[in-house]
Design a protein that fits this description.
The chain is an alpha/beta fold. The protein is built from 11 helices and 13 strands. The two termini are 19 Å apart. It binds zinc ion.
């Protein structure tokens, strides 16, 4: 990102690791919608910032204090790389270390991963070894899409056999569907209008799909659940409308689990009556993609045991020297794109 609304290639020196850090030689990366949000100014102006936060690679160099990794190791790095000594991390909120969203460093407060080499802080805690049975093309989904999508399901406290609605079936929504299924949901309802996404959602475990351009999702979900509402409504878009719908379809005592990036507007609004005028015990939970070695190792286990195949979401592939084209496509959401994989 050379400046707001503009991407291009820049020569930069290979980063150097501090004592606890690592430098990774990138092998695979994925472009994320939040990279587009950054480009359009959602986190303020940035200049000559390397974008990207989803990548795997080979350890190139480690600092003197790194114990678990050596050059040549094949690793996944979480999109969020917390400071594990921070009090927020000690309290179990590592993504919020050093202040709200402070675990989000790549392409925010330091250079991201769309480069031949990138820097990782707290390497022992923020990287995980990729098992031989897991390919880079698959492991790269652990960084953000699986971690965030599964988080949305985990935050939903889905009971076995419970009713779940997932608003928007982009890659995070699709992984939330897969996560809801893994958590034992009885019925998963997906809401999206794109046929390709609807199809993938069914493959990942959605039982019913609502096309919001043809039917009102609130009316339909209440009909499907016999007026009861769902145990968990997952918002995976970052839209005020779907956030409100999520509140409307959640039963009293249920959870609205927000994974969407609300990148626009001054306020996110709560529908007063359907929120039970503040007393219906509807919990709103938010979260930012959890990172860390333990998390990444768990996600890799899901891949190693073939519980989920995220590579079905890879609709396009580009070599690194054409990443600008991939970016354009992702930004405009053209050509049925879900995730573009960048190869190095
Ligand atoms: Zn991402």
């Amino acid at each position: 990102m050379t400046k707001l609304e503009q991407v291009g290639f820049i020569e930069k020196p290979v980063p150097q690791p501090g004592p606890n850090d690592a430098v990774i030689k990138t092998t695979r990366a994925l472009i994320c919608t939040s990279d587009s949000h950054t480009l359009h100014g959602a986190i303020g102006p940035r200049e000559n910032l390397t974008l990207g936060h989803e990548a795997v690679g080979i350890v190139h160099q480690v600092g003197s204090e790194v114990r678990l990794f050596r050059p040549g190791d094949r690793v996944v790095v979480g999109a969020i790389t917390p400071d594990w000594g921070d009090l927020a991390s000690q309290a179990g909120h590592s993504s919020q270390s050093n202040g709200a969203l402070g675990g989000w460093k790549f392409a925010n407060i330091k250079d991201g991963v769309f480069a031949e080499y990138f820097h990782v802080n707290d390497a022992d805690a923020n990287m995980a070894m990729i098992p031989d049975a897991v390919a880079d093309d698959s492991a790269v989904y652990c960084c953000d899409m699986m971690s965030t999508g599964f988080m949305a399901a985990e935050n939903g406290d889905i009971p076995i056999g419970g009713l779940v609605a997932v608003f928007a079936l982009g890659p995070v929504g699709l992984m939330a569907v897969a996560g809801a299924k893994l958590r034992g949901a009885g019925v998963v309802i997906g809401i999206d209008s794109e046929p390709a996404r609807q199809h993938l959602a069914r493959e990942y475990g959605a039982d019913l799909i609502i096309d919001f351009t043809k039917q009102d999702p609130v009316t339909e979900i209440l009909k499907i659940t016999k007026g009861e509402g769902v145990d968990a409504a997952i918002e995976a878009l970052g839209s005020n409308d779907s956030f409100q719908n999520a509140i409307k379809v959640t039963k009293p005592g249920g959870v609205i689990s927000n994974a969407g990036y609300h990148g626009k507007g001054e306020f996110v609004t709560i529908p007063r009556v359907e929120w039970g005028v503040g007393m219906a015990e509807k919990t709103i939970r938010t979260g930012l993609c959890p990172g860390g070695r333990l998390r990444m190792e768990r996600l890799l286990r899901v891949l190693e045991s073939n519980r989920v195949d995220p590579t079905r979401m890879t609709t396009h592939r580009f070599p690194f020297d054409q990443i600008d084209k991939a970016f354009e496509l992702m930004d405009k959401k053209r050509d049925g794109i879900i995730k573009p994989l960048i190869t190095f």
